[in-house]
Design brief:
Layout: H1 2-15, H2 17-44
Length: 45
């Protein structure tokens, strides 16, 4: 029963494009910004 509910929850989540953008793209963009910010900080010190 759990796997059945999990499967359909994943399908519903993947159909919602706005949620998918926040789930995938936001962490990538945020991680990139942190990497650039700390790289500049390390170079300046």
């Amino acid at each position: 029963m759990f796997w059945h509910l999990l499967k359909y929850e994943i399908i519903i989540t993947l159909r919602n494009k706005d949620y998918l953008m926040w789930l995938v793209l936001f962490p990538i963009i945020l991680g990139t910004l942190f990497k650039v910010a700390f790289a500049i900080y390390i170079i300046m010190t």
